[in-house]
Write a structure and sequence with these properties.
- The complex is a heterodimer.
- Chain A is an alpha+beta fold.
- Chain A is built from six helices and nine strands, in the order αααααβββββββββα.
- Chain A starts with 14 loop residues before the first helix and ends with a helix.
- Chain B contains eight helices and no strands.
- The longest helix of chain B has 23 residues, at 26-48.
- Classes of the chains: A alpha+beta, B mainly alpha.
């Protein structure tokens, strides 16, 4: 189908994270990265849609609480709330293309923090910006690594998710471009380096180890996996 | 069964919701309410645990269904999936957590059509096949899946909650997943 405006994403989110996001169980810090990846990745949006459809099925098959009085009472309350409600005719327009670097919802987070403000990291020219969230269990930040240079050493005890927004980085395993996600656990030693020609900007989320409980998703993985 | 083609629940819910969206028909909304609200109460109790809060939330979800009816797109899935999303987001709001949401009107948002057509993308049809497969699961299989979906619960806890051996929990989950996988393969 002709040329595509966006590169094909090769590194996707894990099913467990998508399911936790769909179920509403993923904390805010991880969710910022998941939602930002989803904005760039129709394929993962489709998979989240499947998990949401599963949720919808659970809802539909709940045992109804057929308590007639309570249902009638709450219906009359709701009815009085919706009577005389006015509906403004809201027309949503696709906003003109501006700076596409930060997709929503990430851009709102950065805007709320007063816009992009880089702080240099060490002497190599790399910089970062902490993205504030309400979530105390994670750290969300933007990283800028000058073209061709290695990602500065950093330690984390838990998992780390990196989402590329501009440029690219490579480690010994693969190259990651805009929209690609890398999930690294602290045991894997790798030394990523930004690609040549363009600074690499990514969103990184870290925490104490992510606890994935369900083996359910391991079983479903081949089904939804890419 | 009566009539030629009895209208199933999902078709009926779609018709009702579209009537609400197009004409703000209170009778259609009442019928929708009477189907969804009793199930929603159970669902919110599962999430919120506190029954009073759960009932309040269920009412807020129904209000949002009324207000946002025109945002429902039948091509993208079932009414119950759409309501599930609203319920999830309101529940998260109630915890004063934030659910970072997508904005399809954002210029950086990549719509599906910008991706080459030969890429297999899971779509509404797959979701439907999956929903059908879920519908064919026995209650006991559905329940173990449900617990893994909504709760941070190891299999041993599911085992003691349901009063069944651990091995049975595992085999039920495995069988349920195999059935779902099979259904999705058939839809391809």
């Amino acid at each position: 189908m002709g040329t595509t405006a966006e590169p094909i994403i090769r590194h996707h989110l894990e099913d467990e994270m998508l399911m936790l996001y769909a179920a509403g169980r993923l904390s805010e810090g991880w969710s910022v990265a998941v939602a930002t990846h989803l904005a760039l990745c129709p394929s993962c949006r489709g998979r989240v849609g499947v998990y949401e459809a599963i949720g919808g099925h659970f809802l539909d098959n709940e045992e109804p609480i057929e308590d007639d009085d309570a249902v009638a009472e709450s219906w009359s309350r709701l009815k009085s709330r919706i009577e005389n409600e006015e509906f403004p005719n809201v027309v949503t327009l696709r906003r003109p293309a501006g700076d596409r670097l930060l997709p929503q919802p990430l851009r709102s987070y950065v805007d709320r923090a007063g816009g992009l403000k880089w702080k240099t990291l060490g002497t190599g020219g790399a910089a970062q910006m902490i993205v504030p969230t309400e979530d105390k269990s994670t750290t969300v930040r933007l990283l800028r690594i000058p073209a061709g240079l290695p990602v500065p050493e950093h330690t984390h005890r838990g998992d780390e998710l990196t989402l590329v927004l501009a440029g690219s980085f490579s480690d010994q395993f693969a190259t990651f471009r805009r929209g690609d996600v890398e999930m690294a656990d602290p045991d894997v030693l790798h030394t990523p380096r930004a690609g040549h020609g363009q600074d690499c900007i990514c969103l990184a989320v870290t925490d104490a180890p992510l606890k994935f409980s369900s083996r359910l998703l391991r079983l479903l993985q081949p089904l939804l996996g890419i | 069964m009566e009539g030629q083609e009895p209208e199933n629940d999902q078709t009926r819910l779609k018709r009702l919701l579209e009537a609400v969206a197009q004409t703000r028909d209170p009778a259609a909304f009442e019928e929708l309410y009477k189907h969804i609200y009793p199930r929603l109460r159970s669902h919110m109790r599962r999430l919120a645990k506190d029954f009073v809060i759960a009932d309040e939330l269920a009412q807020e979800v129904m209000l949002a269904v009324w207000r946002k009816a025109e945002q429902y797109d039948p091509a993208r899935g079932q009414v119950s999936t759409w309501v599930f999303r609203i319920a999830r987001n309101l529940y998260i709001d109630s915890l004063r957590r934030r659910m970072p949401e997508l904005d399809e009107n954002d210029p950086a948002f990549v719509p599906q059509e910008e991706i080459a057509a030969d890429r297999a993308i899971i779509n509404a049809q797959d979701a439907q096949a999956l929903t059908r497969a879920l519908g064919s699961l026995k209650d006991e299989h559905l329940e173990v899946l449900r617990l893994s979906y909504f709760e941070e619960m190891p299999h041993s806890a599911i085992s003691s909650l349901l009063g069944i051996p651990l091995g049975t929990v595992k085999s039920r989950i495995r069988m349920a997943c195999e059935k779902l996988r099979w259904a999705l393969q058939q839809s391809r």
